[in-house]
């Protein structure tokens, strides 16, 4: 019977299936971003050896600053061009089908990149474009997942874990790429290993994931009711209300979230795209050490993101709006301060530069309790639209940061040029954080109120009965 099946599934996962699904989505997001980041490191280890022999430089390739800039920018262009289509498809058919298809596309394209490199620059450019198409779904997926699967008291934790893929990806990729490049398999092994891992993850995701916990065979009735508390849902797809795009675009709090994301992703793209170059060419660190050193800042940020998201759900001494301001300021202000420190540090002691970069990245992780959490809070069932726009901000910064940084550096690697880069980044973070603090709100916007479905009503009744009845409180533990 269905009751017997539910007992068997609960014996496997208990009432915490959502956390298993959370980790699966996190690893899939990480895989797509990691596939894009592979080239950032491989361009260093596959570059021709100066004064090397013909045999030593066989199967080695290099690109000019302009060519490399386009290899980064084409990913952003592709993601920008397809973001609207991806958001529309997710709204219509859900993230299970869309995300699975794009994940498999990313795996296949990454597998073919060594061949594209050997065939010529324009083949590689085309492959990078397809990687950008697959990336367009990442932030809409986060928004859609949180809208369907997040228990309202754990929104901060779930958001912080999922958006941490931006840091988890370089932590993994930078750590493994150095040893793989130095292995007998050489630089192509970086792409092959990432492609195989991505394919495995997305095949499993396509089999296991469901667009709603109500449809998942492993989710028991207690967990379904818990997740449904406070959610506005619809009985069927035909009764779904059209997305209120105009109302969303008229909301100052939405713009506050997006403006804060610009500062965050500007700093993130600077660290992801230029940290390996800064460490190897400015500080003079070896290739293998560069891989591990470049992984430290995103690792620090990953840890802080998860911890900050968990803490933000438990802070009680101030209102929700002030919590958003507090955590966003804890991220942006110190991070900008350490960029200022980097601007005035010399190159005599590279360890100090590495510590300052790690500290800047670490503090930035607290933004999960700020604008990252604010997006789903104010948009609820339309989170895939508001949070999905983070893809636009991330890819826009991915497009602009290389152009701006290369224009400032102008082909030089002197510390004076880098000072301008770091100070400009600090100014962007402080200004955008001030705007966020003025206009952000924690309450759901008026355009999210579309009525309450039977599912949500049942969940509310269960919550009320849980508060009144000691026996039913055992059925829905507060901390499960």
TrEMBL record:
Keywords in alphabetical order: Membrane, Transmembrane, Transmembrane helix
Cited PROSITE patterns: MFS
Taxonomic superkingdom: Eukaryota
Pfam family, one: MFS_1
Cellular component GO terms held in the UniProt record: membrane
Entry's transmembrane regions: 20-49, 69-90, 97-117, 129-150, 157-178, 190-208, 255-279, 291-312, 324-346, 352-372, 384-409, 421-440
GO molecular function terms attached to this record: transmembrane transporter activity
Mode of membrane association: Multi-pass membrane protein
InterPro entries the record matches: MFS, MFS_dom, MFS_trans_sf
Subcellular location: Membrane
Stretch forming the signal peptide: none
The keyword Flavoprotein belongs to this UniProt entry's keyword annotation: no
Domain called Major facilitator superfamily (MFS) profile: residue spans: 26-444
Listed PANTHER family: MAJOR FACILITATOR SUPERFAMILY (MFS) PROFILE DOMAIN-CONTAINING PROTEIN, PROTEIN CBG23364-RELATED
Protein's name according to its UniProt entry: Major facilitator superfamily (MFS) profile domain-containing protein
């Amino acid at each position: 019977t269905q009751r017997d099946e539910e007992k068997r599934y609960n014996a496997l996962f208990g009432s915490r299936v959502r956390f298993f699904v959370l980790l699966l989505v996190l690893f899939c997001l990480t895989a797509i971003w990691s596939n894009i980041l592979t080239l950032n490191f491989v361009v260093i280890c596959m570059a021709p050896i100066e004064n090397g022999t013909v045999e030593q430089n066989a199967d080695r390739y290099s690109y000019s600053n302009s060519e490399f800039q386009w290899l980064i920018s084409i990913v952003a262009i592709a993601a920008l061009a397809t973001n609207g289509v991806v958001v529309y498809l997710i709204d219509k058919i859900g993230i299970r089908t869309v995300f699975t298809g794009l994940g498999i596309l990313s795996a296949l394209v990454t597998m073919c990149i060594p061949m594209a490199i050997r065939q010529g620059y324009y083949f590689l450019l085309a492959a990078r474009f397809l990687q950008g198409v697959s990336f367009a779904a990442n932030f809409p997926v986060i928004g859609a997942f949180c809208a369907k699967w997040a228990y309202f008291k754990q929104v901060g934790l779930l958001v912080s874990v999922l958006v941490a893929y931006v840091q988890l990806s370089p932590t993994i990729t930078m750590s493994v790429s150095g040893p793989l490049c130095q292995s007998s398999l050489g630089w192509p092994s970086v792409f092959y290993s990432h492609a195989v891992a991505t394919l495995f993850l997305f095949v499993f995701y396509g089999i296991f994931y469901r667009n709603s916990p109500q449809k998942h065979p492993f989710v028991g009735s207690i967990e379904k009711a818990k997740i449904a508390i406070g959610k506005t849902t619809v009985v069927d797809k035909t009764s779904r209300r059209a997305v209120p795009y105009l109302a969303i675009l008229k909301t100052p709090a939405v713009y506050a979230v997006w403006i804060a994301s610009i500062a965050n992703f500007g700093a993130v793209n600077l660290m992801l795209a230029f940290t390996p170059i800064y460490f190897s060419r400015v500080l003079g660190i070896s290739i293998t050490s560069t891989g591990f050193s470049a992984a430290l800042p995103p690792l620090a940020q990953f840890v802080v993101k998860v911890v900050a998201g968990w803490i933000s759900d438990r802070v009680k001494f101030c209102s929700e709006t002030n919590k958003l301001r507090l955590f966003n300021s804890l991220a942006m202000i110190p991070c900008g301060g350490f960029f200022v420190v980097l601007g005035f540090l010399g190159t005599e002691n590279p360890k100090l530069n590495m510590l300052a970069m790690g500290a800047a990245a670490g503090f930035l992780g607290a933004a999960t309790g700020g604008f990252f959490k604010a997006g789903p809070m104010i948009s609820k069932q339309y989170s895939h639209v508001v949070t999905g726009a983070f893809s636009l901000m991330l890819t826009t910064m991915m497009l602009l940061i290389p152009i701006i940084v290369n224009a400032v550096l102008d082909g030089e690697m002197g510390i004076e040029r880098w000072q301008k880069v770091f100070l400009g980044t600090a100014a962007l973070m402080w200004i955008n954080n001030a705007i966020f603090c003025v206009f952000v709100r924690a309450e759901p916007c008026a355009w999210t109120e579309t009525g309450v479905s039977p599912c949500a009503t049942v969940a509310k009744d269960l919550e009320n009965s849980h508060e009144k009845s000691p026996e039913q409180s055992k059925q829905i533990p507060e901390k499960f």
